[in-house]
Protein backbone atom coordinates (compact mmCIF):
# COMPACT_ATOMS: atom_id res chain seq x y z
CA UNK A 1 0.00 0.00 0.00
CA UNK A 2 1.46 3.34 -0.97
CA UNK A 3 1.66 6.34 1.31
CA UNK A 4 -1.05 8.15 -0.69
CA UNK A 5 -3.46 5.22 -0.32
CA UNK A 6 -2.75 4.99 3.41
CA UNK A 7 -3.41 8.73 3.85
CA UNK A 8 -6.64 8.49 1.86
CA UNK A 9 -7.75 5.48 3.90
CA UNK A 10 -7.00 7.28 7.17
CA UNK A 11 -8.84 10.39 6.04
CA UNK A 12 -11.87 8.33 5.03
CA UNK A 13 -11.92 6.58 8.41
CA UNK A 14 -11.61 9.91 10.23
CA UNK A 15 -14.44 11.40 8.18
CA UNK A 16 -16.62 8.41 9.02
CA UNK A 17 -15.83 8.73 12.70
CA UNK A 18 -16.49 12.46 12.58
CA UNK A 19 -19.81 11.86 10.82
CA UNK A 20 -20.80 9.33 13.45
CA UNK A 21 -19.98 11.77 16.24
CA UNK A 22 -22.00 14.54 14.62
CA UNK A 23 -24.93 12.18 14.11
CA UNK A 24 -24.75 11.00 17.73
CA UNK A 25 -24.61 14.60 18.95
CA UNK A 26 -27.80 15.52 17.13
CA UNK A 27 -29.56 12.20 17.70
CA UNK A 28 -30.05 12.84 21.42
CA UNK A 29 -32.21 15.85 20.50
CA UNK A 30 -34.69 13.53 18.76
CA UNK A 31 -35.79 11.53 21.83
CA UNK A 32 -37.96 14.08 23.65
CA UNK A 33 -39.97 15.29 20.63
CA UNK A 34 -40.42 11.69 19.48
CA UNK A 35 -41.80 10.57 22.85
CA UNK A 36 -44.05 13.65 23.00
CA UNK A 37 -45.45 12.88 19.55
CA UNK A 38 -45.98 9.25 20.53
CA UNK A 39 -47.86 10.34 23.66
CA UNK A 40 -50.09 12.68 21.66
CA UNK A 41 -50.78 10.03 19.03
CA UNK A 42 -51.58 7.50 21.75
CA UNK A 43 -53.99 9.93 23.40
CA UNK A 44 -55.71 10.83 20.13
CA UNK A 45 -55.91 7.43 18.46
CA UNK A 46 -56.18 5.06 21.44
CA UNK A 47 -59.75 3.78 21.55
CA UNK A 48 -58.75 1.44 24.39
CA UNK A 49 -62.15 0.35 25.70
CA UNK A 50 -60.52 -2.27 27.97
CA UNK A 51 -58.13 0.38 29.32
CA UNK A 52 -61.01 2.71 30.11
CA UNK A 53 -62.81 -0.05 32.00
CA UNK A 54 -59.71 -0.93 34.00
CA UNK A 55 -58.89 2.66 34.92
CA UNK A 56 -62.50 3.44 35.83
CA UNK A 57 -62.41 0.79 38.54
CA UNK A 58 -59.27 2.08 40.22
CA UNK A 59 -59.92 5.78 39.72
CA UNK A 60 -56.35 6.37 38.53
CA UNK A 61 -55.93 7.73 35.01
CA UNK A 62 -52.13 7.30 35.03
CA UNK A 63 -52.21 3.86 33.49
CA UNK A 64 -51.47 3.23 29.86
CA UNK A 65 -48.80 4.20 27.40
CA UNK A 66 -49.41 7.97 27.11
CA UNK A 67 -48.21 8.82 30.65
CA UNK A 68 -45.19 6.58 30.13
CA UNK A 69 -44.32 8.41 26.89
CA UNK A 70 -44.72 11.78 28.60
CA UNK A 71 -42.46 10.65 31.43
CA UNK A 72 -39.85 9.46 28.93
CA UNK A 73 -40.09 12.81 27.11
CA UNK A 74 -39.49 14.61 30.42
CA UNK A 75 -36.43 12.45 31.17
CA UNK A 76 -34.97 13.22 27.73
CA UNK A 77 -35.40 17.01 27.99
CA UNK A 78 -31.85 17.44 29.32
CA UNK A 79 -30.15 18.16 25.97
CA UNK A 80 -32.85 20.69 25.06
CA UNK A 81 -32.59 22.47 28.41
CA UNK A 82 -28.80 22.60 28.11
CA UNK A 83 -29.09 24.07 24.59
CA UNK A 84 -31.59 26.70 25.75
CA UNK A 85 -29.38 27.57 28.71
CA UNK A 86 -26.31 27.99 26.51
CA UNK A 87 -28.16 30.21 24.05
CA UNK A 88 -29.58 32.33 26.85
CA UNK A 89 -26.10 32.75 28.40
CA UNK A 90 -24.63 33.75 25.04
CA UNK A 91 -27.44 36.26 24.48
CA UNK A 92 -26.85 37.80 27.91
CA UNK A 93 -23.10 38.03 27.32
CA UNK A 94 -23.64 39.71 23.96
CA UNK A 95 -26.11 42.26 25.35
CA UNK A 96 -23.45 43.87 27.55
CA UNK A 97 -20.41 44.74 25.44
CA UNK A 98 -17.10 44.90 27.19
CA UNK A 99 -16.02 48.29 28.41
CA UNK A 100 -13.11 49.71 26.43
CA UNK A 101 -12.29 52.48 28.86
CA UNK A 102 -9.45 50.57 30.51
Nutshell version of this structure?
The protein is built from five helices and no strands. The protein has 102 residues and is mainly alpha-helical.
- SS-based class: mainly alpha
Total of DSSP H or I helical runs spanning 4+ residues:
5
Largest sheet: none
Overall body shape:
flat
Mean pLDDT rating: 75
Radius of gyration: 24 Å
Descriptive account of the structure:
The model has no long low-confidence stretch (mean pLDDT about 75). The protein is about 75% helix and about 0% strand. The protein starts with a helix and ends in a 7-residue tail after the last helix. It has one domain. Helix 2 packs antiparallel against helix 4. The radius of gyration is 24 Å and the shape is flat. The protein has about 100 residues and is mostly helical. It has helices at about 5-25, 30-45, 50-60, 65-75, 80-95.
Provide the fold topology.
Layout: H1 3-27, H2 31-45, H3 49-58, H4 65-75, H5 78-95
Task: Please describe the structure with a list of short key phrases separated by commas or semicolons.
102 residues; mainly alpha; 77% helix
